[in-house]
User: Fold this.
Amino acid sequence: RVVVSELSQLYEVSEETIRRDLDKLEKEGLATKSYGGAVINENVSIDLPFNIRKNQNVGGKQKMAEIVAEMVQDGDHIFLDASTTAVFIATGGVMKEGYLAFLGSRTEEVIRSYYVDKVFFSCKALDQEWGIMESQESFGTTKKAMIASGRKKILVVDSTKFDQTAFSVAGKLRDLDVVVTDKRPSEKWLARFTNAGIECRYPKQP
Assistant:
């Protein structure tokens, strides 16, 4: 927790400057303003707006998108979920504002009427016991339908989602063929992937 007056003295700037900075942090979803200050937002279960999430960890998402691009061959039929990570895979990050997702039983029915070569999707949290998790049941059930309708299942997830949990289970680790992430996972996770027969891809350090 931070206090406006203390930050003003610490950085030798006006309290108005500090308030503007806190306003920006709140708009980015990184902090929540409170009386006289702000507190950091550490709640992974909170769903931030799409236009805020797409600006988080841009470098990591670009690296993951480069890895994924090498996995798509001419003629492949693919599914992409409604995650901000998928935006980087499909368009490099250029998309109109808004939360572009179709959900519900009708969506799941339509998804099940197709069978694609590769399914690329992300998740809210990844836990060694619970598996692939989402903040809302509707997202979880839609991703279950996607997983069931693809030959190769590829989870594209940044390193901040590891060892986190969320409300709804979208799938188990055994459902996955490949995990693409932005940093080398811990040895514990690498061993878990190996034991489950999952290939893990991440940017190689120079």
